[in-house]
């Protein structure tokens, strides 16, 4: 706690004075972040640091395993954060960010986790699809590090699938107002791998490259029926 208090003192005396106008503007005008980041609670993964984002630029929610429960399976902070970010803040992008050496993913592979941490085990059931994919569809002889990497990446994709079940997200995607991103931060190298939905794989993000996306904002779509010819539909 001494380090935390010392850090706040440094912020208050050295950082805040130069940023005072920014914070005052954010209070006066309110926040207008352009992206929601759903990240793991792991202390080594700090979205604002990784992206060098300033105050007011990211709306962030963090939890064990960067989990997004499917809509209606439970009420909780993640569901509320997604709904608020899309409907109230009108974010244009949602990022789900996993990472290497993830303790949650190690727990997902541990058969006896429920004996010692039943609540964590229950929460991580939302990653069961990713675990099943890695156990059944990946080679049995891959080493532990690669297996953990694969599981963390598959979990990002599983949570993107869950995210699409949220009505606010589904509506914004259909209206062409939202883009989804899947990221994997490799702690040991500092590399950011992003999921390319067209290629169906994660790629290392390079500065000169365009940012691949998991699901791009679609063109606003019309209904599948011809609303101008009700008599034709009735005859059919």
UniProtKB/TrEMBL annotation:
Function: Reversible hydration of carbon dioxide.
Cofactor: Zn(2+)
Origin organism lineage: Bacteria, Pseudomonadati, Pseudomonadota, Alphaproteobacteria, Hyphomicrobiales
EC primary class: lyase
Protein name: Carbonic anhydrase
Signal sequence, renumbered to the chain: none
Family classification: Belongs to the beta-class carbonic anhydrase family.
Organism of this sequence: Methylobacterium nonmethylotrophicum
Residues that coordinate or bind Zn(2+): 40, 42, 99, 102
Alphabetized GO MF terms: carbonate dehydratase activity; zinc ion binding
């Amino acid at each position: 706690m001494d380090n935390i208090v010392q850090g706040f003192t440094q912020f208050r005396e050295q950082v805040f004075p130069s940023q005072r106008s920014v914070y005052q503007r954010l209070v006066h005008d309110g926040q207008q972040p352009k992206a929601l980041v759903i990240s793991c609670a792991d202390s080594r993964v700090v979205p604002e640091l990784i992206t060098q984002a300033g105050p007011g630029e990211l709306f962030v929610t963090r939890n064990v395993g960067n989990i997004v429960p499917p809509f209606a399976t439970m009420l909780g902070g993640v569901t509320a954060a997604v709904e608020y970010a899309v409907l109230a803040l009108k974010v244009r992008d949602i990022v789900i960010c996993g990472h290497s050496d993830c303790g949650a993913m190690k727990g997902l592979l541990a058969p006896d986790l429920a004996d010692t941490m039943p609540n964590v085990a229950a929460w991580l059931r939302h990653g069961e699809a990713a675990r099943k994919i890695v156990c059944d569809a990946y080679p049995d002889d891959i080493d532990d590090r690669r297996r953990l990497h694969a599981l963390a990446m598959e979990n990002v994709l599983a949570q993107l699938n869950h995210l699409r079940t949220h009505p606010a997200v589904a509506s914004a995607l259909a209206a062409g107002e939202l883009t989804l991103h899947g990221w994997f931060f490799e702690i040991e190298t500092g590399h950011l791998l992003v999921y390319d939905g067209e290629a169906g794989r994660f790629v290392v993000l390079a500065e000169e490259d365009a940012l691949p996306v998991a699901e791009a904002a679609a063109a606003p779509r019309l209904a599948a029926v011809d609303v101008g010819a009700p008599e034709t539909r009735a005859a059919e």
